[in-house]
Specification:
Structural class: alpha/beta
Helix content: 10-25%
Strand content: 25-35%
Largest sheet: 4 strands, mixed
Strand order of the largest sheet: 1-4-3-2
CATH topology of the largest domain: Signal recognition particle alu RNA binding heterodimer, srp9/1
Number of domains: 2
Order of helices and strands: EHEEEEHEEE
Shape: globular
CATH architecture of the largest domain: 2-Layer Sandwich
Length: about 140
Amino acid sequence: MVTPLPLSVGAVTIATARPGMLARFYSTLLGWPYRREEPPRPGAPADSGYALVCPPDGVEGMALNFEYDAHYRRPVWPSAPGAQASTQHLDVGVTDLDSAVDWAVECGATLADPQPSDRFRVMIDPEGHPFCLCR
């Protein structure tokens, strides 16, 4: 079967309890502009809403959407029976793995345990989503 028309992925949407906070984390980590946010809906928690981070002008890449999920449960990594598992993660390319880990920690990430490889580092963002720093 052939795709009937050109398709492309323009964004990844990440569920979270605190969209604005998590978008600011990734904006700082990646050096990408914090493009916009939408306020909480009437009656929703103050930290809810929506936020968007995009690559800088002239840089190719997918946007990151951060969407409030009223039933968000922090995932565990590695996965464990009965616990909320992460269903996807971001791979972030880096040239200096050690410096990138230091920067991610300074931004608010934590280094995951265990580390399955010496070619990349699994990090945990402030809401519990794993992401990898990859050489």
